[in-house]
Amino acid sequence: MLKALRPESVKKCSKEELNVLCDELRRVIYETVMQCGGHLASNLGAVESTVALFYAFDFPRDKIIFDVGHQCYAYKLLSGRLDRFSTLRSAGGISGFPKRKESEYDCYDTGHAGTSVSAAIGLAKAQELTGKSGAVIAYIGDGSFNNGLVYEALCSLKILNVKILIVLNDNDMSISPTVGGMHDMLAQIKQNGRAENVKLLENFGLKYIGVKNGNDLEEMLEAVDEAKTLLNTQSVLLHIATKKGKGYEFSEEHPTNTHGVPPVGSPKDKEYSEVLGETLCSLAKNDGKITVVSAAMKEALGLAEFFANYPERAFDVGICEENASVLCAAMSAGGLKPYYAIYSTFLQRAFDEIIHDVCAQDLPVTFCIDRAGISGADGETHQGVFDLSYLSLIPNLTVAVPKDTEELKKMLEFSATYPHPLAIRYPRAGKVLFEGSDKPMKLGEWEYLHRVDGKKHARVTLIASGERCLILAMKVLKNLEKQGKSFDVVNARFVKPLDVELLRGLDGEHVITVEDNVFLGGFGAMLDGEAVRLKKTWTIKNFAYRDEFIPQGGVCALQKEYGVDCEQIEAYILGILQ
After folding, report:
1. What are the domain boundaries of the chain?
2. Same fold, 7-261 and 272-425
3. 448-577: which CATH number, 3.10.20.70, 3.40.50.1100, 3.60.130.10, 3.40.50.920?
4. In 10 A of CB 109, how many CB atoms?
5. Beta partners for residue 208, in sequence order
6. Kindly report the CA angle at 346 between 254 and 554, in degrees rounded to 5?
7. Phi, psi of 542 (to 5 degrees)
């Protein structure tokens, strides 16, 4: 049925046919995610509500914004992308998130939480001022509904005087179980219809409808039809309760583990997050001031054991990245030692708080930045390729990049007594790749991983930051040594401060930098500036990503496409050493 279905023909289906359609959508989503990876549980829970919206509204004339985008797969399938859906999250294929360039049915790109209500209000005002007709819908989960941007948007609803429909998909989950005061308020409404809580929502200018069973198709069809009628005169909040992972028992029972699913058969390296959790638990045994903070991602960031062992010192604040940063600053000002674990792409949201609350006060908060560098299949909104740039410009902040998981452990041990702000950034998967050293970690000190001659510098010195780039460096070294050529390799484990002492003494002819970050404002750009200050006459070559948003694809393929790979590095060095 799904294969022959056109977007406009959903309205012609009987209720029996629509129920069959829901089953087929779930099957295709499950089978595709098993092959391609992707967000499984959240998409399975959103099927009936998406079908009901398609039945009632006229997309793409009407507009829908999926908050974050973890619930958009059924919508993509219903909007004519079935034949391409097998390319989900692959290079050049269907995105795991809404993308305007992919289809006219996608009216707004998303990927980070909390933006949908603001975007819906803005689109509705644009419709009004350009004389276009059509409803505007924000589809948002209860996890995203914690985000402060939602309430900034709701405060603007009466000011902009537009009519929007908010579908609040309440499944008690973000990636982790939803927490906080808003979650409690929604839970009270679901349990006993607390009138005062409904009144609070309606004070924003919304007509409340709910709570409806979001996985009952017939109830959804009726609720969406009611909301559409009310939307003629006022903004509406349709509150639906759904089961994350609906239709597949394992996913229903384990919604956190099946939120994001890798392709079947993917290799499983030890993740940096595991080392983070283990090390923080070890440090916390002897230091009662250590606390951890997560923005709704404690399992994904390796903190579940810390939350279990030290619940009084572990805080999940929900999808509130800015709030988490200020909390850490204030806890630090009060004498605690906070660790804030977060993905690189989400830390961008707290840029002002890092500057204003943490670093301007020179407070010893440690940012543990996961998924740094190219993250791969989630695409532009999730590539962590800007953090070296936006963090390195902030006074008082030290930026460290471990060469492997063992060095991450040493950096965390170093951080326990470090009295200033510290950011440690690392990719997802990692290994213990390099020989360890008993030498204690020293602020700003780099290390040689290979010397052509123990006493004098080689013609070429390659300075790389982070595991991925050092792997490239050592692979190139191995290839060239087979040809009788060699160069020095330096582990730049601190990007800020640079190891000025090492640079000052470097008297070779050529310096190469390699980083898993964009060039602008990154490690190579910083080293270039330092070379000018030191009046060095090296020839410098920087391998970093060019000034573009990097799309979805495999990590290695994207590194090659955007200018950081063995082949290009090797060719450049060969050109020098011929």
Report:
1. 7-261, 272-425, 448-577
2. yes
3. 3.40.50.920
4. 19
5. 237
6. 75
7. -105, 125
Token match 């689109």: residue?
A: 123
Our CA angle for 570, 576, 578, nearest 5°, is: 90
Cβ 126 vs Cβ 115: under 8 Å: no
The stretches of 262-417 forming alpha helices (DSSP H) are 272-286, 304-309, 321-333, 344-347, 351-353, 387-392, 405-415
For 349-403, what is each residue's pLDDT tens digit? 999 999 999 999 999 999 999 999 999 999 999 999 999 999 999 999 999 999 9
**CATH number given to 7-261:** 3.40.50.970
pLDDT digits (tens, 9 = 90+) for 39-74: 999 999 999 999 999 999 999 999 999 999 999 999
Q: List the one residue out of 359, 366, 370 whose CA is nearest residue 283.
A: 366
Give the whole-angstrom CA distance, residue 445 versus residue 432.
20
pTM above 0.90, yes or no: yes
Q: Which amino acid would we find at residue 166?
A: I
Helix (H, G, I), strand (E, B) or coil at 5: coil
Quickly name the fold that domain 272-425 has.
Answer: Rossmann fold (3.40.50)
81 closest CA partner among 64, 68, 65, 99: 99
Which residues are known to be catalytic?
Answer: 244, 321, 349
